[in-house]
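Hi team, as promised in this morning's meeting, here are the two structures we talked about. I've kept the exact order from the run log so nobody has to guess. The first one is mostly here for context; it's the second one we should focus on when we meet again. Sequence first, then the predicted structure tokens.
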Amino acid sequence: MPILFFVLQFFPSTKAWGDNLTTICRILFPSFCFGDSLYKMAFRRVISVINEEKDLIDVWDSRVSG
């Protein structure tokens, strides 16, 4: 599921759905939080490029670790 939600958040037309579903899954499934955080830690560079940031996002940033 984390990969599916990451793809939903990637496209502007489905970003709101991805954000909302991620929030719901974080509340209902603790294992989703772990998987989502690991996935985002591995793809920090991609997240930085998507958000057009110059520096690499820190591991403890809320966009990575929730």
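And here is the second protein, the one for discussion:
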Amino acid sequence: MSRPTDPVAFHTDESSAQNQDFDYWSKSSQLEFEIVFLENILKRDRCYVDALRVLAELYTLRKWYSRGLEMDERLVCLLPEDPVARYNLACSYALLSENKDAVKQLCKAVELGYDDLEHLKHDPDLDNIRGVPEYLHIMHQFEYLLRDSGTNENND
């Protein structure tokens, strides 16, 4: 979110401009508060999974991708069989253009049961790997597995 350079230029009255300026700072301050709060929790308990998950997301919102990656790596160490943790790790690698690691973690997420194909298709965090042949292979396999499992369910 970028701070308006001239908030008055977009409004007809001064109070609206002040509200826009306040909204920017209150949202920014809230995000900063949440980050500091969660960082302090993790100083006390480095393995607090919920704090790690939220902090990873907040870092990514701030475009602090390296910090988000660090949180996602910690989560995968704590929850190695969690498909969502693996998926988020893949996203962090992709945001940092570490395509080989991103594809590897995405493949592992699918193997572990990640099954939100629509989210995977449209998640902007994965844009850097969309043209990578391994990503296309994973997508093809994913679609095949979902089609195959749907066929088996209909036969039961």
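Starting points for discussion:
The chain has seven helices and no strands.
The helical segments are 14-44, 49-61, 65-78, 83-95, 99-111, 117-122, 133-155.
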